[in-house]
Each structure stands twice: as C-alpha cells, then as structure tokens.
Design goal:
Elements lengths: L1 H5 L2 H28 L6 H15 L1 H10 L8 H7 L11 H12 L3 H4 E4 L5 E2 L3 E8 L4 E7 L3 H19 L10 H16 L2 H14 L6 E2 L12 E5 L4 E2 L3 H6 L4 H19 L1 E3 L7 E3 L5 E3 L5 E3 L2 H15 L3 H11 L8 H16 L8 H14 L6 H20 L5 H15 L3 H11 E2 L2 E2 L1 H12 L6 H12 L5 H11 E2 L2 E3 H11 L5 H9 L7 H16 L5 E3 L4 H6 L6
Parallel strand pairs: 5-10
Antiparallel strand pairs: 1-3, 2-3, 3-4, 4-6, 7-9, 8-11, 9-10, 12-13, 14-15, 15-16
Length: 572
C-alpha cells in the first residue's frame, strides 16, 4: 500500500486536507465556546456538527463515532443522542446504484431475484445499506448492498492513519509504543474482512452454531444463493432496537433481563467459544417479542485461541487471589508486558492500584472505574495493548456502554462474576479445574470459605444446578487424578486425628435446602463406575457421620484413616 500511494501524492495530500481541516475547525469551535462561556448554550449545535463531520469523513470515522455512541459515561447526553444516529441512520446512496450492483453481482434482473423489494433502504450503515425484500419462495429477507468505491476509500484512509500513528504514539496518554501501528494494522485487517460479505456469512453461520439451542440468543439464517462478496441476503429480523427503550417497555420486555442476556452471551463468546462479535453496538442488537436477543452484522468478528482463553481465566484467578507476581506472568503471556519487566517496582504498584478496584463492591464496579485506576499505572510502566486484544477491549467496553444506556444502574461485574464462578465450578477441562483448585487450596489447605463464596455467587442468578455440579465434583474427587486433593480435603477436616463436625456441617449446608444428604448421595453414587472399594468405604463413612452428627461435636478418627482415605479408589 505504501508503494502504491508513494507515487500518488496529490491524492494523499488532498485526502489529508479533507480530514484535517474539518477536525481543526471543530476543535476551534469547541475552544471558542469554552473561552466565551457558551458551551452549554451551543452544545446542541456542536453535537450536530460532530455527527455531520464524522459522516462526511466516511466509514473509518463513522466507526469511531459508533464506539463513542455507546459510552454514556464518557459522552454527554446531547452528543450521545446525535452519535447514536451513526448506527443506521446514515445517508444512503441512490437505490438505482444499489439495484444495479445487486443485478451485477447475482447475474439476474431484480424482478427475477425478489418478488418485491423496498424502493428505499430501510437502514444505511457505514459500509453498506439494507433493503427489505421478499423472495419468490415467500421468505422475507434483508438485502445488504455495499457502498460504491468502498475498498478504494478505506485503503487511502488506512494508509493515512497508519502513517499518522507513527507520529501520534509519543503524544498518547498510554505507553503503546510501537504497538500503535500494529493496532492500526489489526483494525485495517478487520475492516477488509468486514467488507467481504461472504466472510460475514460464514461468520454468521459459525456464530449460530455456537448458540444453537440457546434459549436467549437468536441468529438470522443466510441465503447463500442470493449472496456474493458485495451483496448479502439474510433472514429478516422483526425486532426492536435496543436503543428504543419505549418500545421495549411497551412490549412488556424486561430491560434488565435483556442486559443480562447481552453480557452473558458476550462472556460465552470470549471465555467458552473464543469467537466473539467485536462490534456489538445498539444497531446490531435487537430485542425479540419472546424476550430473546438477536445479533446481526457479523463482519467484525475475532478469534481467541484456547491458550488465550486459559490465560484470561488465569489472570482472573490470580487477581482474585491477589497473587501479583503470577499475575505479571499472565500479563506477559497475554502480551501486555515484556518478560524483562522490573517486578520489584511493578508488584507494589499493582498492589496499590488493584487493591482499590478489588475492595469495591461488585455492584459498584465497572470498566470505567478500572480504566481510571489503571491508566496511570499503564503510563508509568511498560504496559502495551496487544493488537489482538484491542478488539476484545472494544467488545467489552461497547457491551457495557449498551447496557449502561439501557439500564443506568447496571454494573457489568454484577452479571459477569456469577457466570465466571459457575464456569469455574462446572467446567471439566483440566486447565479450568486446575484454576479452581488454585482458588480453593492455599498452602496445602482447603479453603471452605472460598467454596462457599463461589457457590453462593454462582447461584445468585439462578444459573447453577447443584445436583449435577456435585455429582461431577465427587466423580472427580474419587478419580485417580484427585488422589492428592482427597488427602488435602481429609486433612482440612481433621486436626490431631479429630474430625471437626462444624466443618462437615458447613459442607452439608452448602448443599441445602435444595439437596438433602440422601438425595445428593444417591444422585452422586449412581453416576459413578461400579463397583469401587472407594464407594463402600465412603458410604460407610457417610453413614457413621450422619449417625453421630446430632450426638457429638467431634469424632476421633483412627490414626491411619487420612492415609486410607487418600488411597481410596486405588483397589477394586
């Protein structure tokens, strides 16, 4: 690209001036209002001016406006209302051009393709516009048509932004260093993927596959026979935009529930599937009449590797445990820090900054709070934003912004924390199980209070079924893999060869009132391989424990019992 534009200086200079002059004039107007005390009086005029400016500058700058439109905590309400129009209320291009492109791409006249099609676009976005049509087979569809000369305009803008990034990096408030150019490259790669509608169709089907059977999320169907790289035909979604709160309430839909669905589905994308929607702004999310949420526009997607997902969980576990030295290792693995970072200086700084975040109540935490606390740390120490995580951060921040615009009292961690707790308790992958044990065991001792907290948090949104969770946990406990864990459990329940019944009572209390000991025992043992010596031994112990619970406060165990229990399951 550099070689191409190196010999087209008039084109480059012309586009540069077309960008810089209106931006300079807008900043000058804002400054003038501040000097004369007219900021509040002219805010409506300036918000319209900003929307028109971004629209005039084209797709790249419209994308910036879309991101800002979802941040009510960053943008004042007057500007916010104008910027939301950048989602799908942009100026369209003539329908005759759109029809000509459809016919050219599909190789047939419009009348042969569709039984009917809207004379004007029902929505115009940054990269294309959408028509509502009906196929001759009767299905109603959305027909997405790309804007003319889009690739050429994107290429020039990206060239200029990449060139400018080398000069802007030292002036930014964060230590992005040389990675700013890499972030621009990643952004450009995603934009090129987004203008390939066949790629978008494949993304849509892959996304639908992950959420197949999910009662809360709906994904439209792609009509491949009517789709090309510049024309995409997909199922028409009859829903309510998440920005239309009045219609959502009129349809008797719960705003809080829609917010929960959006956050949980985002967490599933990041931590379970690793394939996530990187542009979940309000124009791409719809509330359906049955309470589900529908996603559209799958042009900007990204993939996390299994290793990245595991290191994200690692970072969360070590953050909760305040294990800052290991947390630095996680940051290094994820690419936020270099291996030669000075740990002696960084660990005290992490303790100071993250202690404020961790001591806040879950309900009062949001990403804006964390960003404010972390920004100075990132400026003073060699943190970098890996290009691959730029879209992850964008997705999370955008999702929280949508939630805040719908439900101002919303705090993302209040929904995310129960989901993560449930994931730690129910995921059977060895790496996640290892992370759970890191949370529950410290210095060789089992921490019952941590288990209690995790179960209570996971149950707080009604998403944890204790019977299968307990069955899975006990099945693992009785396996060869958990031999060391069994010994630690027994030792945590005993002291001086005595078993403490208050600890056993706490364990049973975790499972009540929904599950009786007998119910749990039958459900668990019925799922185990048959027959183990372990089963008979553990059943005998269970019967003895229940028989003595009401009579004794403590019960002496034979000296050899800890070793016996640690070796259970090794014989048949």
């Amino acid at each position: 690209m550099s070689r191409y534009y190196r010999w087209r200086l008039p084109q480059v200079i012309g586009r540069s001036l077309a960008i810089l002059w209106p931006l300079f004039w807008f900043v000058l107007c804002l400054r003038w209002d501040q000097l004369w005390g007219h900021t509040d009086r002219n805010v409506g005029q300036r918000s319209v001016q900003l929307r028109k400016l971004l629209t005039h500058l084209g797709p790249t700058f419209i994308k910036v406006g879309q991101a800002l439109s979802t941040r009510p905590d960053l943008v004042r309400k007057d500007f916010l209302e104008e910027l939301t129009q950048l989602q799908d209320q942009l100026p369209g291009f003539p329908s005759l051009q759109a029809y000509a492109r459809i016919e050219s791409e599909l190789g047939r006249p419009i009348a042969e393709i569709y039984a009917q099609i809207s004379p004007e676009p029902v929505a115009a976005a940054s990269l294309g516009q959408v028509y509502k049509a009906q196929l001759h087979s009767g299905e109603w569809v959305a027909v997405k048509v790309q804007r003319p000369h889009l690739r050429e305009r994107l290429s020039l803008d990206l060239y200029l932004i990449r060139w400018a990034s080398t000069w802007l990096a030292p002036w930014l408030p964060l230590n992005l260093g040389n990675t700013l150019t890499a972030v621009v490259d990643e952004f450009g790669r995603k934009l090129y993927e987004e203008i390939d509608y066949l790629n978008e169709g494949r993304n849509c089907e892959r996304f639908a596959g992950y959420f197949r059977g999910d009662p809360d999320v709906y994904v439209p169907r792609i009509f491949w026979a009517y789709s090309t790289r510049r024309v995409l035909t997909l199922e028409w979604i009859d829903g309510i935009k998440l920005t239309d709160i009045e219609r959502i309430q009129a349809a008797n839909l719960e705003v809080k529930q829609l917010v929960r669905i959006g956050v949980v589905s985002a967490l599933k994308q990041l931590l379970e599937y690793g394939f996530f929607h990187a542009d979940p702004h309000p124009g791409n999310l719809f509330a359906l009449a049955d309470g589900r949420m529908a996603y559209i526009d799958f042009g900007m997607m990204d993939q996390l590797t299994q290793e990245m997902k595991e290191y994200l969980v690692d970072a969360l576990v070590h953050l909760v445990d305040r294990d800052y030295n290991t947390l630095i290792d996680d940051f290094i693995h994820l690419g936020f820090l270099q291996p030669n970072v000075n740990r002696q200086e960084l660990i005290p700084a992490l303790e100071t900054v993250l202690a404020d975040v961790l001591t806040q109540e879950v309900g009062n935490f949001n990403f804006k709070t964390a960003t404010d606390q972390f920004s100075d740390l990132m400026y003073r120490y060699p943190f970098q934003v890996p290009p691959h995580f730029a879209l992850v951060i964008r997705s999370l921040v955008t999702q929280e912004g949508v939630a805040l615009s719908l439900y101002p009292q919303f705090r993302i961690v209040g929904v995310a924390y129960p989901y993560v707790a449930k994931r730690l308790l129910t995921d059977e992958s060895p790496r996640i199980r290892e992370r759970l044990l890191q949370v529950l065991i410290k210095e060789g001792k089992f921490r019952w209070n941590r288990l209690e907290n995790l179960i209570q948090i996971a149950r707080s949104d009604g998403g944890l079924d204790l019977v299968p969770t307990a069955r899975m946990g006990l099945r693992y406990l009785m396996s060869e893999e958990a031999r060391t864990l069994r010994r630690q459990l027994v030792l945590s329940l005993t002291e001086d060869d005595r078993i403490h019944f208050e600890e056993l009572q706490r364990l049973w209390h975790l499972l009540s009132p929904e599950i009786s000991p007998t119910h749990l025992w039958q459900a668990t043992m019925g799922s185990l391989p048959n027959p183990f010596v372990l089963q008979d031994t553990f059943a005998e112990l269970g019967e003895q424990v229940q028989a003595h619970l009401k009579q004794l406060s403590r019960w002496r165990l034979p000296q050899a019992w800890p070793d016996l229990l640690a070796g259970m399951g090794q014989e048949r």
